[in-house]
Design brief:
By secondary structure, this protein is α/β, with parallel strands linked by helices. It has 3 domains: 16-88, no CATH class; 101-340, Aldolase class I (TIM Barrel, Alpha-Beta Barrel); 345-395, no CATH class. It contains 14 helices and 12 strands. Helix 8 (179-190) packs parallel to helix 10. The structure holds iron/sulfur cluster. Iron/sulfur cluster binds next to loops.
Amino acid sequence: MKLQFKSAPRPEDMASQDWTDWSWQLRRSLKTAEEFQEAFELTEAEREALQKGRDLFRFRTTPYYQSLLTPDPEDPLRRILVPHRDELTPGAQALLDPLGERRNNPAPRIIHRYPDRALFLVTDFCSVYCRYCTRKHFTGQEQAFPKEDDYQQALAYLRSKPGLREVILSGGDPLTLADTQLDRVLGDLRRIEHIEIIRIGSRMPVVCPMRMTDPLVKILKKHKPVFLMTHFNHPREVTSEAAEALERCVDNGVPVFNQMVLLNGVNNHPAVVQALSRRLLFLRVKPYYMFQCDPSEGTDHLRTSVEESMQIQRELWGTLSGLAMPQLSLDIPDGGGKASLVPEFEVSRGEGVRVYEGWDGVRAEYRNPAAEQRRLPRDWESYQAEWDFTKQAKN
Ligand code: SF4
């Protein structure tokens, strides 16, 4: 069956040249309770959240993303976008900073947790505020691009750590910045000799695919290698506009990976995950991570249990090709780093032998080779200094 991608339903009163202009999409975003009330037929629970939840987390949407929602209060995309009364109740954990980022913040806008990579939060602004956001302690506070002094301090920190190989531009959404600002940031990073890889995490290809213009893609290409990490959560987000945006990146040599979050009532079914993964892979986007939702404030109604997530992953295992299979992963709260969750296939073990049962019930032994066969690669010492340097890069 050939995959088809539907166009977003552009309202008749909106001119095509406006609709396809990303800055118009940002300017015309809904951002007040009154605008949401006018645009959607709200339930009592949604109305209450819009009135009382302002201090908890902002709300905003582009007209494009708004057009993908249906009037059904249980519409999966609506659960991502429209605040709900459930956000106001204290959750089982309700962490303000679930990833413990404030403790790994050595310079303004820099989060340095792992030895060889660091996050650079280049803006706190997003064109859509997702109700499950992990970084509510930072996002949407109207700080936008860093002040010059903070920006220079952030760059100085990145320069001072020669073991840093990768910088991840995050936020907020880095692709809400103007082309000139992005070009400047990417150029400044490229001038740092030891930085090899730049990643950009963005939901713009999902909520405002018209952002992926030819000039922007040209900038990403100019500063290669730049990896784009998108954030599609549901197959309905993969419209023909999104497909075109993704293909423009890949055609121009920008590798694209997708990080989804498993969300209650949104995508917590293997049929939905496979539909999303299949569509993305067809567009040459690698489904990379399937995250357990972080326990940030007001997200309990959107989180799945670990057991449910693992069950979904187990059903996908073996049925979905390895290329389409995202890796289920949980961020250990308080900055414990990522923990990969994989189905348990081992059923028993003995001296030099382990017994496994595969996804469809085939059971077999795996025997280790005799210990005397073991040898290290002859040239391993040529790489040891590089490896030692990587391990202590944060110091
Ligand atoms: S786009 Fe990302 S940073 Fe912005 S609200 Fe959504 S999840 Fe949070």
